Input
Amino acid sequence: MKRRYQHLEPRAWRLALLCLFVIVSVAAAPSPRKFYFNQIGVDQGLPDGIVNDLLRDRHGMLWIATSNGLSCFDGIHFKTWKVDLANHQALQNPVLQGLCEDVAGNIWCTTEVGVSRFDRHRFQNYSLIDAETGERSVLYNWAVMCTHKGEIVASGTGGLFFFDAQRDSFVQAIPKGPDGKRLFRGIHKNSMALDTLRNGIWMGTDKGIAYFDLATRQYTNYKHNPLGWKAFADHRIHPVVMDRHGHIVYHDVDLDAIVTWSPEHNDSSHISTVGWASRKQWFASLYFDARDNMWMSTWMPHAYFREASTGIVSELQHNDRDRYAISSSFYHDIEEEADGTLIFATSNGLSIVNPERAFFSVIELPEGI
Output
């Protein structure tokens, strides 16, 4: 007796094979990643749910810049320093934005009114003053960093400000080109990246990518581009990071894309962010972990993970009913531990995850128990 499939028409055979191919392809396709977070918030001792930056110091302490003071976490207990306007050796503004540690072990933090240096006993507070206009930089003092030569650099509405130990004050490096005109006004949040390979600082501005050479003390951008760098354009750029391969990675708002650019080869690649959400994406943070996975957050807010090995983008969604979800879809910073654990500075406390392992195990019990 002949089998029925031997009488199928060629067209039917093609349809059957196509269906089989689709089924196999779907089954074999990698799925978006699911992560399980632990959360630390106000109930556990944080002074405020809004966390703007994180710093792991040389002693292993985690410093936390919040919107209600500076905290230090030893893994069990929090110690917090808050504003005391009656004490000039205390914080003078509650909203902290950026953190760094200098070669002497001092903790530096930017606030909405300037920069504070904490010697672990008392604070010294500084203003960032525009050398030309005399204006005080307020609100947008997003970041502070320590260069490989030990210089303390802060970003404000007037560009970069360098700490002068002899004057005990910050001195502005005015962002001007050879013609004396300003190249840009200010630097965006999470848009200041130290480049130790070229001894400079990359910045994201409303006038595109900008670069400051720490040796020559000169700025360059699309208005002044002596090296012909193709990344320079009159676009809105934020955030900006440097990956471990020496590439500059940033979100180009005008292109709706994440751009990876090599200064060495002067070429770039793009990842389109069109369609990731129902409207245009304005990215707030971008981070690469030790495995080159990319973690991103937008102002909308949305949070994303792009796996390096597959290129698959997954959305990290906050869910009040899921205790293992990320505590907020908006975060400003990530601190990575030696074992690959990531600590997220979110707008609702700290979220902690290890992408390669969960914080719990599933144990199969024998039948009958």
Summary: The chain is about 5% helix and 35% strand.
